[in-house]
Amino acid sequence: PSASSGDKSTFVVGYSQSNNAEPYRAQLNLQLQHYLKKYPDIELLPIADARQSSATQVSQVQNFITQKVDALIVSPTEPAPLTAAVEQACAAKIPVIVLDRTVNTDCYTAFIGGDNVLIGKKAGEEALRLLPDGGNVVELRGIMSNQPQIDRDKGFREAIAANPTIKIIADREAKWLKEQATPIMQQWLAQHEKIDLVYGHNDPMALGAYLAAKAAGKADSIKFIGIDGLAIPDGGIRAVQLGQLSATFIYPTGAQEAAETVNKILHGQPVEKQQVLGTTQVTKDNAAELYKQYDLSGQN
Amino acid sequence: MTAVRTPPPVKARGENRMRRTLSALGAAQAYIGLVLILAVGIATKGEIFLNETNLTNAVGAFASRGILAVGVTLVILTGGIDLSVGSLLGIASMTAAMMLARFSLEPWQIVPICMVVGAFFGFLNGAGTTWLRIQSFVMTLAMLSVVRGLDRQVSDNVSVGTQIAGPDGKLTPQAEAFQVFGTPGHNLFDRIYYPVLAFIVVCIVFHLILTKTRFGRHVYAVGGNPTAARLSGVNVTAVTIAVFTLSGMLAGFAGPIDAAYSASADPQAGQSYELDAIAAAVIGGASLAGGKGTIAGTFVGALILTLLDNVLGLNAVSDNWQLVIKGLIVVVAVVLQRPDLFTFLRGGSRS
Amino acid sequence: MTAVRTPPPVKARGENRMRRTLSALGAAQAYIGLVLILAVGIATKGEIFLNETNLTNAVGAFASRGILAVGVTLVILTGGIDLSVGSLLGIASMTAAMMLARFSLEPWQIVPICMVVGAFFGFLNGAGTTWLRIQSFVMTLAMLSVVRGLDRQVSDNVSVGTQIAGPDGKLTPQAEAFQVFGTPGHNLFDRIYYPVLAFIVVCIVFHLILTKTRFGRHVYAVGGNPTAARLSGVNVTAVTIAVFTLSGMLAGFAGPIDAAYSASADPQAGQSYELDAIAAAVIGGASLAGGKGTIAGTFVGALILTLLDNVLGLNAVSDNWQLVIKGLIVVVAVVLQRPDLFTFLRGGSRS
Amino acid sequence: MSSEAGTVLTMRAIGKSFPGVRALDGVSLTVAEGEVVALLGENGAGKSTLMNILAGVFKDYEGEIEVGGQVAHIHSPRDARRHGIAMIHQELNLVPELSIADNLFLGRERALLDRRGTEARTAELLRGLGLDLSPRTLVKQCKIAERQLIEVAKALSQNVRVLVMDEPTSALADAEVRRLYGVIRDLTGRGVAVIYISHRLEELEEIADRVVVLRDGRHIGERHRIDRDELIQMMVGRPLGEMFPRAAGGSTGEELLTVEGLSVPGEPGSGRTPLREVSLTVRAGEIVGVAGLMGAGRSELLESIFGVHRAAGGAMTLGGRPYRPKSPKAAIRRGVALVAEDRKAQSLVLGNTIGFNVGLPSLGRFLRLGVVAARRANAAVERQVRELRVKAPGIRFTVGNLSGGNQQKVVLAKWLLTAPSLILMDEPTRGIDVGAKAEIHALMSALAAEGKGVLVASSELPELLAMCDRVLVLCEGRVTAEFPRGRATQEAILEAAMARRQVTA
Ligand SMILES: Nc1ncnc2c1ncn2[C@@H]1O[C@H](COP(=O)(O)OP(=O)(O)OP(=O)(O)O)[C@@H](O)[C@H]1O
Ligand SMILES: Nc1ncnc2c1ncn2[C@@H]1O[C@H](COP(=O)(O)OP(=O)(O)OP(=O)(O)O)[C@@H](O)[C@H]1O
Ligand SMILES: [Mg+2]
Ligand SMILES: [Mg+2]
């Protein structure tokens, strides 16, 4: 059954998420469910969680194809492994929205996602602002082979190249995890006399470093920059409000755009194939407002 | 035949023969868990579940882990454990992708190279557990770490794609050929998905090795009673090294399959696959104490794991509950396939 | 006392006494691996490495896993394995954070609750391995999955912070108090980091339990020969259930520590900690076959793992090479602490 | 049978040390074709060690071995086999999960298994030993005595020049022993040399051409004529008094244990004999023997009284009170002890120390505020171990490194330390040397004299006849006869033990 046929009264949508147990993705799930509720003729199947496994995700996508869903949303764990699966969906004439991370094929209906190089660049520009006289930067990386890690690193380095007195004196993989970041930061503090800024590829890592610095009594002399800006009590926006982070950058979930796009596709309306989302810098000034804007906890 | 479970009491000739037939297939009870899952699948999702493509997809996703499970079963049978297979699969898949991307090797060249790579590290595992007498848990855990580090180093932490396009924008002939290893949609006679075929062939080959050859008998003897094996002239060291090497070799073989399945080799590929592989073996009745287990059992264990995932997925059970239900069903499946189930249910005595 | 390694030949009274002292602390050789790492640390990073804060930080980061390792050691001593401790730590840390965030409980209320939660699941592990006679590997692997699912379900996959601010913008008294569990920078007498203290106390308590009490001897007996233990009047079932329950209880205790360390409970907290915990026990000389191991050994194993991380980190070894070197050093450390090292180096005979 | 025939084996100046133990020191041994040489010596004298060297168990040793006049380098079991040497080890060495046929040919299979051939050959060998078992039976389903015969069959299945038997009869009853002798005579007739280790001196008289005596790892002497007293003197280095010191017809007290119609179901697949309506009594101060063929259910009876198996019917009393033990723990609490049949599998934590093992069931006595008073416990263990003359460097020695007989003594020590009022003994002198055997017998008498009850199952009829006030005979799980002391004879007991035909008819 072709999904775009207008004679259907309800549409079934499947969503395969790469890993539910990351706060960012939990937030994305929540928002997607929220925004899709606005379309009573669209039914979202329970979200499939690949738990970081590409193999699991491929079979999830295949499951959805088997079930003949009317549209498919995929947030790939990795681009390459999901490529063939997305092509299979495409071959089965199921429209696919690729959310957040890309795949290596053109055979999808829309891509919606943030621009990690851009976000890295913005973070670097913030570092330039925070360290006008130069300084020592340490960088906490996500899982090395993850594309967002690569992009967030790339953008940041490009931006800080503008000021040669800003140096990255150490960088390590903390695997996106708060509790990995803390001991690494503790070691850096033991090794380096002067650390001026910590750049974490996500907020939890930046906050893990913050905890270490605070314990060492150096939190006030160091600036912390994170990425994600989740509107949850334990998230980056609150941390900016509390002055723990100097800034964070909202990594847009794209949930709202995805909901709108799905609706258009199902009703045969044209959609834009590449929807690259911008970012918003969270500062002390706009934190409260942004939190309110993105907080969905009360609306469920 | 090597019946590995306590067979029911032998009453009559006929019964004996039947028992033999069943135990040749593993142990009859091992299938109860599988039947249960099939029943749930059929009851809840009938056609969709039984659909050939669905079953192929489900088993295909697990094929590389299933092949690891066969190797791990060999090691477990000798009383050891192999935690490094996930990493070995990882480095083999990276090797395959690099051979393809850098040197445009043909599949028939890539597979042996990957198998040698895997066998080499597997051999080191065996050498460490025998000559250095390190517990296999530690030795293979260390190997897990070392090989993962090497994998990440050689790949520079960047995943390597296998869908290499030539100057004409189409896949190179080698990349095209490489897809037979398991890029979804590439099937033998347009029907048989290669990784599933590979998994089944590996199972049959190692089933025969374990049941029909001297080596197989020695594997059981080493796990069942190493002292007795040694005193009987079995070269325990050689057998131990051999099973680790074979396990590594199979991981090496699974590497290209994983790479083709993902159309790329990720530096993280295979991470935590060892737990799935061991779980398949143990759910299939292998005892971590050694000497007890069959390839048929491991095959069934692999099917239980993968079909369980499939059934839960098809029923759109929420992921958190999937984890819960999966754990519970594994317990139920294992209890159901206990050979003394009925004694047990009657509140029978302990062994 | 319960010396678990083959003691060296008894030569003279004096030597006997010394040996007894050493074996009371574990086995003398167990320390060689640790000494090696300390030596490398001092040689390469002298003052920075030996700095009290650095050592505290290093051990502190491992403390919760160290506590898991103690529980896992108990289970391993009986010949079982506990793969669920990481998940149990996870759910306990989530429990702690929620008790704090939702009900503003005091630390002294939170800890017992978390321990009961952990002990409850640990008890189920024990019940499954004894009454249902499921291999502990399978039972605890299933529990790992079930508990992780529950953890994610109750938390809705969102991490829960423990630094709860009151209306005045400052931490609530309960949140303030909660930090003693291990928020970095909160020390006893401004010097002793609580998690390190907790880890050491747990080690001492369980060292005493294993060496001084009847229960401790029963643990060794069950692992050494369950049949003989039962025929000697040991309630094997009760001992087995007890060690799993204690392991769960310790994981429950480690939960709040982990939550305080990160100032939040993450739904993924504790993932794969079981491997670190088991590795610490096994590097410390515990045999997965059961009956062999000490808490002192596990303590040393934990120190080896965490100080190794620290030394490599301080020397700014790249992440990839860290994995490689870590694996190699674990192998070297385990070989070095072999009690028959010197016989072995002379190419001695096998046992 | 003549020792003039050519020498097949010469062991010259063999020495072997273990950490802290000099097990062998300059021992030499020659064996001729067709000769049966008995190796005799106290527990821990070094007999097994010497033979293990011959069988290639140890890589390193001092001295030289010649087989068939040529120097043989034997450093692995394979080397030994190449030289035509096979050994039946003191401890059973079979793979429980494999079938009998697989076990017999383990290490000698063809690359591709020839199942049909090996099974046929196995069936033949089993028949030769009078074992009525299918070659496909898993070894774990076989009884201990059957396993011992399987070991014999395994050795016989090889084409051997020298066959070593290290206490092959320790678990066998008379009938099987006779059959084994037949097999040995058959072998020697074909020129095979046999080295035979046993602590049952009466066996040696029957089977051995020559006896070689070891003591403390040294060769003490050899004799062609078997003179019991002289041999004992050579073994222990001092003369020994009365072998079976139990006085006849001692006065006995009240009923200590009564068993009324005890029935215990057998467990499929475990090789356990079911018990049917067994009744017996043991009075305070009485030693009651249990005789029977292998598989008669003697072990099951003792184990059931000890609470190992759950009874399906019947009633017991102990010391006048009802006794329904649901576990060994409960039995121990009521003052019952069981010296189990299989020390390795059922009694000892081999990897742990003597002190640990001996103390295990009595820890409750040494508790202070839940803590084991180690000093007091160790002192008690030390005393008990010394009393039984366990040959070991100290109580911190690993049990697994003791000689077989000394391990058995450790088991006895462990149960004596619990100060039981009723002691159940299953083959208590299995593998024990004559000297120690006399001591254990004296000990049994002493226990009885103290008013304790002793129920002992043994395959050595002379032992039962000499020691027991009463002998019960079991056959297929039923009591088929009961003889008071004096009226029991070997013939009468055997007849009752083979009552199976009448019973099943
Ligand atoms: N692996 C070992 N490590 C240490 N000592 C050992 C080892 N094996 C044997 N011994 C010691 O060697 C000595 C000789 O033991 P062996 O087993 O040869 O005695 P045996 O004559 O066979 O005695 P038994 O009649 O009790 O079987 C004993 O003191 C024993 O403790
Ligand atoms: N697989 C097994 N696991 C544990 N114990 C076993 C196993 N098989 C046999 N046994 C024990 O070994 C003993 C059987 O050995 P044995 O040959 O002595 O038979 P039996 O019935 O005890 O006869 P008897 O003692 O009268 O000769 C039983 O007591 C049984 O409990
Ligand atoms: Mg001996
Ligand atoms: Mg018996």
TrEMBL record, chains B, C:
Tell me the domain of life. Bacteria
Is Cell division there in the keyword field? no
* Membrane topology value: Multi-pass membrane protein
GO cellular component terms?
Answer: plasma membrane
CDD domains the UniProt entry points to: TM_PBP1_transp_AraH_like
Compartments where located: Cell membrane
Name one molecular function that GO assigns to this entry: transmembrane transporter activity
Membrane-crossing residues? Answer: none
Keywords attached to this entry? Cell inner membrane, Cell membrane, Membrane, Transmembrane, Transmembrane helix, Transport
What Pfam families does the record point to? Answer: BPD_transp_2
Main location as per UniProt: membrane
- List the protein's name: Autoinducer 2 import system permease protein LsrD
TrEMBL record, chain D:
Identify its membrane topology class.
Peripheral membrane protein
Question: From the UniProt record, which GO molecular function terms apply?
Answer: ATP binding; ATP hydrolysis activity
Q: Which UniProt keywords apply?
A: ATP-binding, Cell membrane, Membrane, Nucleotide-binding, Repeat, Sugar transport, Translocase, Transport
Lineage top rank: taxon: Bacteria
Main subcellular localization, coarse class? Answer: membrane
Query: Where in the cell does this protein reside?
Result: Cell membrane
What cellular component terms from Gene Ontology apply here? plasma membrane
Q: What start-end ranges are recorded for coiled-coil regions in this protein?
A: none
Name the UniProt record assigns to this protein: ATP-binding cassette domain-containing protein
Q: Which organism is it from?
A: Nonomuraea phyllanthi
